[in-house]
């Protein structure tokens, strides 16, 4: 399932779809199917325009980020702070050492803040090596160095070092929470990733308080042409499409109760 999802996404992301449509158009042209070739060419151009030169990605991502707002008043106490991995540059760290973060670093920055705010809470980090090779250190392993560097007692950490997908995050976390008799937990992950995560956790019967971070949009995005940042638009569109596809796939496979959990 893990490899299948990885291979599917190689073809399903927006720029890959553009490339596939262009290849099909070229082959159809060579075979003399001019009308069908024109259709695939038009699809490729439309996808490319929407991906690079509009706010479509930001708008779709904003809907995800707005689904679970952060509570205005933090709980008085929590027994566990759950942090979903995906924030470390594991391949870079394997060759260069140290701690290197990607755009999702806020998951651990906010996790550190919460660890200090709730000094008696356990810190559960769920995240293994999600690469094809499986040859790198996952986020759960790297988290020990991160938290100890900032004065957090490693004894507070609970590590799930095997999860490669969000479903595995939820399933393994459920087992670890039960083994450690923990409840009343905060769930920390990127805001756009929260709907899919909450849907999975609820389906498995894990009550959590969503604590989103790592926002990528301002919350005031409207659909509009945007020629100022094509590379960023492509990145945001890719992220949004991945999340919406994941929501649909998990619902169809029976792993969540709703397409868009709330």
Automatic annotation (TrEMBL):
GO cellular component entries: plasma membrane
A single GO BP: Gram-negative-bacterium-type cell wall biogenesis
Domain named DUF218: residues: 80-246
Keyword Transmembrane helix attached: yes
Alphabetically ordered keywords of this record: Membrane, Transmembrane, Transmembrane helix
Domain of life: Bacteria
Coiled coil regions, renumbered to chain: none
Transmembrane segments: 7-27, 39-61
InterPro entries xref list: Cell_Envelope_Assoc (IPR051599), DUF218 (IPR003848), Rossmann-like_a/b/a_fold (IPR014729)
Protein name: DUF218 domain-containing protein
């Amino acid at each position: 399932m893990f490899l299948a999802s990885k291979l599917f996404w190689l073809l399903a992301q927006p720029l890959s779809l553009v490339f596939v449509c262009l290849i099909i158009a070229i082959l159809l042209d060579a075979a003399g199917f001019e009308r069908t070739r024109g259709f695939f060419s038009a699809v490729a151009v439309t996808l490319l325009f929407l991906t690079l030169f509009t706010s479509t990605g930001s708008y779709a991502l904003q809907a995800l980020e707005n689904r679970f707002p952060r509570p205005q008043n933090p709980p008085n106490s929590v027994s566990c702070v759950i942090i979903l991995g995906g924030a470390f540059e594991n391949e870079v760290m394997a060759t260069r050492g140290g701690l290197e973060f990607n755009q999702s670093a806020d998951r651990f920055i906010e996790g550190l803040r919460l660890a200090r705010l709730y000094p008696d809470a356990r810190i559960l980090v769920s995240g293994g090596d999600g690469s094809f090779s499986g040859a790198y250190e996952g986020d759960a392993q790297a988290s020990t160095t991160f938290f100890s560097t900032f004065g957090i007692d490693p004894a507070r950490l609970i590590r799930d070092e095997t999860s490669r997908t969000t479903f595995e995050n939820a399933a393994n976390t459920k087992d670890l929470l039960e083994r450690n008799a923990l409840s009343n937990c905060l769930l920390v992950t990127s805001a756009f990733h929260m709907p899919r995560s909450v849907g999975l956790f609820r389906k498995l019967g894990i009550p959590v308080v969503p604590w989103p971070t790592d926002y990528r949009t301002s919350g005031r995005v409207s659909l509009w042409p945007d020629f100022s940042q094509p590379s960023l638009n492509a990145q945001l569109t890719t992220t949004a499409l991945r999340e919406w596809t994941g929501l649909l796939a998990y619902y169809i496979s029976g792993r969540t109760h709703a397409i868009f959990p709330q």
